[in-house]
Specification:
The complex is a heterodimer of chains A (155) and B (103).
Chain A (H helix, E strand, L loop, with lengths): L1 H20 L15 H4 L4 H7 L7 E2 L3 E4 L3 E2 L5 E7 L4 E8 L6 E6 L7 E6 L5 E9 L2 E11 L7
Parallel strand pairs in A: 1-9, 3-9
Antiparallel strand pairs in A: 2-4, 4-7, 5-6, 5-8, 8-9
Chain B lengths: L5 E7 L2 E7 L22 E8 L2 E8 L8 E7 L6 E8 L4 E7 L2
Antiparallel strand pairs in B: 1-2, 2-5, 3-4, 3-6, 6-7
Classes of the chains: A alpha+beta (155), B mainly beta (103).
Chain lengths: 155, 103
């Protein structure tokens, strides 16, 4: 009996030590001040919009233009850009529906800066890509499907 | 400390266009290494740019931003010789600040 107790308790301690060593308990992980962890944890476009503060579903708008390729041969570098011609656009976000973390990037647009940003993002697979713009306290979106072809044969 | 950013700022009329190429691994936390162990996420979380001390762009990034991130934006004002400063902070607490002059 004594021996059995010793064995169970020591294996528990080993498991803990292993978990710490394998990085399951990241000792260094810290988030930059002002980084919206909740928003970046969202799993869908609707969830991302909600965590960014949209109280109702975003509305599709022709005044928001999303530039994204129809076919991306390399999913690790996909150039996306968004332009809003609506006055008072204060934020532009890029959301990739099927990425593990749907929200890719969130740009604040201070007064005097054009509501037009572009960047490169990674896509795990073909998916709808959304540009989400905050105008006043309302949210608008533009969407485009981007096909990711692995192997680069363009099909 | 990582490599410096490449910043190009060009004034045209009353508008200045800034392109920034950041040098960063941007590890997504999804990739596995040769031994099958997940490589922990390591990515830039916040980045901002100032023009003569005034913020002209600030962004929050997730793991889906590409390796060696590129960003382009433009703002009203700016003339040759003005200073653009770009700062970023990643999830390890690493920071970097670089500056360039408007051309």
């Amino acid at each position: 009996m004594e021996r059995r107790e010793f064995l169970t308790s020591s294996s528990g301690a080993t498991a803990l030590a292993l978990a710490a060593a394998s990085g399951l308990v990241p000792a260094y992980a810290q988030n930059a001040p002002g980084w919206n962890k909740v928003a970046f944890d969202s799993k869908s476009f609707a969830e991302a919009a909600k965590t960014l503060g949209a109280t109702s579903a975003p509305v599709e708008s022709k005044e928001l233009v999303l530039q994204a390729p129809e076919i991306a041969e390399n999913g690790s570098v996909v150039r996306v850009g968004a332009q809003s011609s609506m006055a008072n656009t204060t934020q532009i976000a890029f959301v990739v529906e099927k990425n593990p973390s749907a929200l890719a990037a969130l740009f604040d647009i201070p007064a005097g800066t054009d509501a037009s940003v572009s960047t490169n993002i990674k896509m795990g697979q073909s998916s709808n890509v959304y540009a989400l713009a905050k105008v006043g306290d309302k949210y608008f979106y533009a969407v485009k499907e981007v096909k990711v072809t692995l192997g680069g044969c363009g099909g | 400390m990582s490599d410096p950013m490449r910043i190009r700022a060009q004034a045209q009329g009353d508008k200045t266009t800034v392109r920034v190429l950041v040098s960063h691994e941007m590890e997504s936390g999804q990739r596995k290494d040769a031994a099958g162990k997940t490589v922990p996420a390591w990515f830039i979380q916040t980045i901002n740019a100032t023009w003569n001390g005034k913020t002209v762009m600030s962004a929050q990034w997730g793991t889906a931003v590409s390796k060696n991130p590129f960003v382009q934006f433009s703002f009203k004002g700016g003339k040759a010789g003005d200073k653009i400063v770009v700062n970023w902070v990643d999830n390890h607490g690493d920071k970097r600040s670089d500056e360039a002059l408007v051309a």
